[in-house]
Amino acid sequence: MNQFAPILPELIITIGAIVLMMVAAFGGRRSGGFTSWASVAVLIAATIALAGPPTHAGGIFGGLITADLFGSFGKVIVFLASAVAIIAAHGWFERDTEHSAEYSVLILFSALGGAVMVSASSLVTLYVGLELQSLSAYVLASYRRTDERSAEAGLKYFVLGALASGILLYGISLLYGFTGTMNFNGIAAAFAREGMSSLGLLFGLVFVLAGIAFKISAVPFHMWTPDVYEGAPTPVTAFFASAPKVAAVLLGTRICLDALEPATDAWRQIVIFAALASIFLGAVAAFGQTNIKRLLAYSSINNVGFALVGLAAGTPQGASSVLFYMAVYVVMTLGAFLCVLWMRDKDGHPVEDIAALSGLSQSRPGYAAAIAIFMFSLAGIPPLFGFWPKLLVFQAAVNSGLVALAVAAIVGTVVGAYYYLRIVKVMYFDERGEQQLGRVRQPVQGVLIFLSAVAVSPLGYLLIGPLQSITDRAAGSIF
Amino acid sequence: MTELPLLTLLIAIPLVAGLICLFVSANAARWIALIATLIDLALGAYLWAAFDPSGPQWQFVENVPLGGGISWALGIDGIALVLIMLSVFLMPICIGASWTAITKRVPEYMAAFLLMEALMLGVFAAQDLFLFYVFFEGGLIPMYLIIGIWGGAERIKASYKFFLYTLLGSVLMLIAMIYMALEAGTTSIPALMAHDFPVDVQKWLWLAFFASFAVKMPMWPVHTWLPDAHVQAPTAGSVILAGVLLKMGGYGFIRFSLPMFPEGSAMFVPFVFVLSGIAVVYTSLVALVQRDMKKLIAYSSVAHMAFVTFGLFAFNRQGIEGAMIVMLSHGLVSGALFLVVGVIYDRLHTREIEAYGGLANNMPGYALLFMLFTMASVGLPGTSGFVGEFLSLVGTYKVSSWAAIVATTGIILGAAYMLWLYWRICFGVARRPDAAEMPDLSMREWWLLGPIAAGVLWMGVYPESFLRPFRNDVGRLLERVERAAPAGDMALTKGKPQPQAEHHAPEAGH
Hints:
The structure holds two protein chains of two kinds.
Chain A: H1 8-27, H2 32-49, H3 53-56, E1 58-60, E2 65-67, H4 69-88, H5 100-119, H6 123-141, H7 148-179, H8 184-194, H9 199-215, H10 224-231, H11 234-241, H12 243-259, H13 264-285, H14 292-313, H15 316-341, H16 360-363, H17 365-379, H18 387-399, H19 403-428, H20 443-456, H21 464-476
Antiparallel strand pairs in A: 1-2
Chain B: H1 6-21, H2 26-50, E1 59-65, E2 71-76, H3 78-97, H4 106-125, H5 129-138, H6 140-150, H7 155-184, H8 189-193, H9 199-216, H10 225-232, H11 235-260, H12 262-267, H13 269-288, H14 293-312, H15 317-348, H16 359-362, H17 364-378, H18 384-399, H19 401-426, H20 433-436, H21 443-461, H22 464-481, H23 499-508
Antiparallel strand pairs in B: 1-2
Helix pairs in contact in B: 1-2, 1-4, 2-3, 2-4, 3-4, 3-11, 3-15, 3-21, 3-22, 4-5, 4-6, 4-11, 5-7, 6-7, 7-9, 7-10, 9-11, 10-14, 11-14, 11-15, 13-14, 13-19, 14-15, 14-18, 14-19, 15-17, 15-18, 15-21, 15-22, 17-19, 17-21, 18-19, 18-21
């Protein structure tokens, strides 16, 4: 029984998801509201259950899973982001989709996969978690099956995702073949023993990292991101940009710093390349975008690049900065996507054209101010809170002697600032266009937007102390 | 300390007032903004009175750690004090200048200005490296909005240029700051001012800071954002841009570059002098051919700021004190000149010099004040401009006579473009009938320009009031940079040796 105490949150979600699936199957459309709120309750219960053994039990099930603070930190973000993604769908699917009830169930399974990913300490659990998460995500992407774009997004995501999984699996098989173990500690020991002399190990490492790079949509494995983000229903996009991304980044962090720690020199160059390429491509490619979801897709590529700068440091400080970065990133991104969700025309149809925002500051000042706060924060302009995690990753990089990387990355923030400014410009400088946004009555979402805007406002600086001490301890738990 | 956290209050008042402004009507927003800035002015005056020039270096110190390597650390020395005074003095004037000129989206405008004030004051009061950066960069957001929403026809390009240019300059400084915090193990600015960085590192750090401050200042050749921003910004925006924002560059040099990297600074003295020399001559010539009044004054700002860099990098008391006075004086004078332009722009809605002429006939009061500010800009003795420029030239001359000669041509050229501007606008006869019918200054405009005129004369006649607060701080700065001060090129030759001196010479060897 003791072995099950540390996975209590996962158990809660599994059982909850299965029960709710039955409810959805037999309750039909009417159960949509109930399953949605029940799923949120399940996720919150799972978050609360993280306190205690799930946070400090250490390796369980023969080292398949590690219950530590690092994993718990990731799970808090994944669970809460999933809950927000469920709430984000309120008022979205009821109108024109049949099976709205299953949406929240799929999110639950995806969150479960994410939870397994962040605490995996064996290649097998890693793969199982990743696939559970991804398969749910494929379905979610094409959730609006009558919509061509949504179906295309799902198909594209599935085909490319399957390819990435194949690459990852091939890498895992190489690592297993050359080390004889699936366990992270065992792999680390093998790397320490053999060094980088073994070509097989090196290939395994590269393939595993490539598979993960796909999941976190780092350049050069980012191609699916803009299309999928654009095509998927907006609440699903909000989910993709938050929970699975955090889970994958944390998974990558754990692999690099735990299993591949002795091979830091080998993976560091890959991570540095991916970081800089993501930052610059994410910034430059967003210039010409007119669709706000595509723009935010590039923004998420850009942001992952910055998180990778912290990972490249390869130190506890670096890991801590990655955790800090992802925590703040999720708040900013979810806030921004909730605002995008509110972009509806007078009849309530979703609008994704940036031009629809013109003159928003005059018609809806509060709404425009919230978007402006998220944009400036995503751009990392002080005094908004989005600046601080960027500072932390740069600090970690400089501390590890990667000054050139930090300089290049920080120049990337200036390039990226341009397109975030463009949104502010459209809202504040341009005159009102003929296309006007209608009002959306979703008080819960309104509260969430307000809370996230406050969190990334300068008031967020008050959180630095507590958050930093948690991320420091969480990062310490994988070293 | 149980006393009132005055500096926090100074920053918080405009912030809170700005928030309130967003929720009230246009007229209420105007009054709230005016009252808030006047309260800040009163607080600033109290700080000036309570500041003890012979007391400890840092006064009104506050420190609340926020954890994670940043703390809400505030405190001012004399240098920061006078710049804070300048800011709080100009702010009510800016609000007054926008009273009737701004008619659309007034509450947001006032909120942006008050936010701007809070961030500017924060820059001068911050004692934590990263807190300084947050304030320093944060100022970009309200200024971006002010130029972009309430600016002229080309406002969007100008706002982008302003934002991205200054951001690019600043981010390199951030990397240098991260390195410094790491190397010195502290983010406290006073502690860093006493920290000796390795000499070979200093030059890189110096360059990173220079990138930021040179853009902000602005120095040639990275000044090109300034004319655009000035021309497009509303009058009050130009005043605050020229009056205070440009001073952040100079303040940065005094607060960071010189005391933290004395050797690095010394190494780059020729570089700074060359850039400043080009700025003085080149931008003055460019100013001569401008047809837009605001652009002319913008270019003159670049030339005047070159006196600041000349003075600062002279490494001597006259130079640094002169640079400080030039900054204060330029803050008042260029602010006033932009207001003067704004006065006639409000009446005729053009900034073309061609459109005006003969204003002395129908606007005598206006011509009088314009004359005073023109003279102050030229550097006529008795005005603030003279004191600052003279001191900084003396300081420069001690180090390099060539630099001083080049700098002096700037004064001559300055006289040329300013007097010519004045002549074209105020003398002769009106070129357009509507220009001849413009009414003289209104009561409100007298209230805006009068205090600045008084300040300009006060600083010109009795600069001691302004020098005293920071005299000791300049002394401390000099002690710090003395070891790196570049040798002058004056090549002093000894007088004829006296017999007595010869007698003692052998003893000196022992």
